[in-house]
């Protein structure tokens, strides 16, 4: 399987993905800083000590806590790369079916299911890696900026940061698995737009905020959703060895 994944990596031109991931990370960090600046008033309150980081409009600090700030950063990064994953799925699988170029790949003396699974695992690895690195860089940027501008009340505690980091890791893994679900819908009609639109629907459902809580807030729920994501992705190609390329 690793050999198939390496072969797929050599076949696909991923420079666009790496560039996009870098740009997305910069935008995430910039957006978080923009939130801190605008919510913090951008004036006297911005850059004062955390305990009095209130806006002139009578508001509160830019973020309620370090957990709040890092969770928002993680959610933003996951949302962006769920869409990135749908583009990868479209390029690696859907477009090859649509253009019939997948037929050449299926002439290899390897089970079709393994070939598709190798593509899917590559998408999973790229998505998870990009989400994880982007989240880490964005969170580090927040902590570094806060040490100077102090837009988050209190001081970062090692225990809190560690617990939040573990939560973000689990949520990132879950989101990467969920990002494979659009393959199921895209394979039904061999449609790139369907794949991308379904990814947007998924990120809206996962990120949907209701009274301050989202589906990704609880640790158990992301784990269950991640398993569901993998199962649905598997359903999309479970019969690929028995079906013709259409």
TrEMBL record:
Assigned keywords, A-Z: Membrane, Transmembrane, Transmembrane helix
Pfam families (UniProt xref): ABC2_membrane_4 (PF12730)
Spans traversing the lipid bilayer: 16-37, 69-94, 121-145, 165-185, 192-207, 219-237
Record carries keyword Iron: no
Protein name (record): ABC transporter permease
UniProt source species: Paenibacillus lautus (Bacillus lautus)
